[in-house]
Amino acid sequence: MSFGSRAAAAMQAYGPACIGIDPHANLLEQWGLGDDVDGLERFAATCVEAFAGRVAFVKPQSAFFERFGARGVAVLERTVADLRHTGTLVVLDVKRGDIDSTARAYADAYLDEDAPMAVDAITVSPFLGFGSLTPFFEVAELNDAGVFVLALTSNADGHEVQHARRGDTTVAGDVLARLRALNGDARPMGPFGAVVGATIGDADWDLDINGPLLVPGFGAQGGTVADIRRLFGSVLDHVIPSTSRQVLAAGPDVAALRASAASVNAELVGS
Ligand SMILES: O=c1ccn([C@@H]2O[C@H](COP(=O)(O)O)[C@@H](O)[C@H]2O)c(=O)[nH]1
């Protein structure tokens, strides 16, 4: 089944929220864990226990695992496998992008179902040109995986590049239009998504890409359900709001983490 179909079915079954696994040093401390590989392992295992099979998407942030070198990456690999084993869709936030031949190696590393770190979808950066992302789209399609392209990021500096004019459009507008073309008329939606922050402010963008919209910036960065409703109105059913620290702050108690994730979904569905 295509990633678009799997994502739509998971949202229907569990609600739209994506819960991020971001083991910040201060969260490890709050959870009574060391800022070391053992702490990381305990943190990730607790997140798996809390969220696997209970939410549609989990988004591990690779940077917080890479911080601990090869042993941290090994923890990430086990975390991804444990989550996927339960059917929870894993969106790995790695923001990759490179020249064609290297992009293919990155795509093989994450999107080839036989790779040790195979995930359901990854985030990529279009900064080397949208065409440089072709290997990611090709490998994803072959493996029923997804790709989320940074379009309008949640950080305040993103607009410097993303709002830059490009002919009669903008850099972000062009990324969104190209994703729309790639997704064609796939039903229920195509596998190629955009990252659009809940914090972008204005609602003047055509976000109808017939693909999933991964929406970080919701929660700890200040984005609210009202922002999501205002920004995504007609394409709300394709929106995957993603939140990490807001939910993780409820840990390390597994029941409290589950309750926090459930209340995010309830709030979103109520919108
Ligand atoms: O535009 C973007 C793209 C990615 N992120 C990532 O999402 C999470 C946000 O964490 P919170 O704790 O919910 O703020 C983090 O991993 C970022 O690297 C983003 O924030 N904005």
- Class from helix and strand fractions: alpha/beta
Task: Kindly estimate the percentage of residues that lie in beta strands according to DSSP.
Answer: 15-25%
Radius of gyration from the alpha-carbon trace, in angstroms: 17 Å
CATH level 4 superfamily: Aldolase class I
* Largest sheet entry: 8 strands, parallel, barrel
How would the blueprint of this fold be written?
Layout: H1 3-14, E1 18-21, H2 25-30, H3 37-51, E2 57-60, H4 62-66, H5 69-85, E3 89-96, H6 100-111, E4 121-124, H7 134-142, E5 146-152, H8 159-162, E6 165-166, E7 169-170, H9 171-183, E8 192-196, E9 213-215, H10 225-232, E10 239-243, H11 245-248, H12 254-270
Parallel strand pairs: 1-2, 1-10, 2-3, 3-4, 4-5, 5-8, 8-9, 9-10
Antiparallel strand pairs: 6-7
Helix pairs in contact: 3-5, 3-12, 6-7
This protein binds ligand LLZGTKA7.
How would you portray this structure in words?
This protein is an alpha/beta fold. It has one domain (3-270): TIM Barrel (Alpha-Beta Barrel). Helix content is 45%, strand content 16%. The chain is built from twelve helices and ten strands. An eight-stranded parallel beta barrel has the order 1-2-3-4-5-8-9-10, surrounded by six helices. Strands 6-7 form a two-stranded antiparallel ribbon. Strand 4 (121-124), helix 7 (134-142) and strand 5 form a beta-alpha-beta unit. Helix 3 packs parallel to helix 5, helix 3 (37-51) packs across helix 12 (254-270) and helix 6 runs parallel beside helix 7 (134-142). The longest helix has 17 residues, at 69-85. The ligand O=c1ccn([C@@H]2O[C@H](COP(=O)(O)O)[C@@H](O)[C@H]2O)c(=O)[nH]1 binds next to strand 10 and helix 11. Its EC number is 4.1.1.23. Residues 16-260 form the Orotidine 5'-phosphate decarboxylase domain. Pathway: Pyrimidine metabolism; UMP biosynthesis via de novo pathway; UMP from orotate: step 2/2. One of its GO terms (biological process) is 'de novo' pyrimidine nucleobase biosynthetic process.
